[in-house]
Amino acid sequence: MRVRVAAPDAALRASMHTALDRAGVPLAREPSSDTVLLAAASTVDEALADCPNGDQAGIVVVADRLAADGVRRAVRAGVAVLVQSARATPTRLAAAVRSAHDGDGRLPHEALVRLLGTDRRKQAAPPRLTARQLVMLRLMAEGLDNIGIARALSCSAHTVKNVIYDLMSRLQARNRAHAVAAGVRAGLI
């Protein structure tokens, strides 16, 4: 297994060579079916633009920024492994090259989250429920009906009905099962 480095900047290419040399990964001058291409640049798109089409065992992209669109294009182009430049230690580069050579994929967590569109920071905050509503939601999750909840909490069934009505409104739930599912998703149960 050998590595060929492609980078638009000679200094960046030299730093990748040094890191790979420290990791004990041999460099290749010419592409072959056993060679892994390591493309390094500021962005994923710049690294992809510097990737020559050829016969290689796999592609590793090292970039400063891993934007979602660039990651999608890289995956479509057959890139097996993405590494953020700040985390490109000799050990990580060696592991990335091995993964690409073996056909395994590696994406940084941040890139995978952006790619899948499940960034928790962008999700709506869970609804705020009162302590009584949380208790009733948990009892609903255990399968208790209004009378069972009233007995467990020593209150009237009418009180339970009113609290659950407000609870369903806050969770924007259609029915009890939907309310319990929303509570689970929001981490309330």
Q: What is the topological layout?
A:
Elements (H helix, E strand, L loop, with lengths): L1 E5 L3 H13 L12 E9 H6 L8 E8 L2 H9 L4 E4 L5 H13 L6 H8 L14 H11 L4 H8 L3 H15 L4 H10 L4
Parallel strand pairs: 1-2, 2-3, 3-4
Structure, described:
The protein is of the alpha/beta class and 189 residues long. The protein is 49% helix and 14% strand. Strands 1-2-3-4 form a four-stranded parallel sheet, sandwiched between helices. Strand 3, helix 3 and strand 4 form a beta-alpha-beta unit. Helix 3 crosses helix 5 and helix 6 crosses helix 8. The longest helix is centred in the last third of the chain and has 15 residues. The chain starts with a strand and ends with a helix. The model has no long low-confidence stretch (mean pLDDT 86).
Characteristic terms for this protein:
189 residues, alpha/beta, four-stranded parallel sheet
Radius of gyration: 26 Å
Number of helices: 9
The chain-level structural class is alpha/beta
Query: Based on the structure, what is the oligomeric state of the protein chains?
Result: single chain
Series of secondary-structure elements, N-terminal to C-terminal: EHEHEHEHHHHHH
> What's the helical proportion of residues?
40-55%
Cα(first) to Cα(last) distance is 50 Å
The major beta sheet can be summarized as: 4 strands, parallel
| Total beta-strand segments | 4
**Poorly predicted runs:** none
Average pLDDT over all residues: 86
Tell me the β content: 5-15%
Strand order of the largest sheet: 1-2-3-4
What best-fitting shape do the alpha-carbon axes yield? rod-shaped
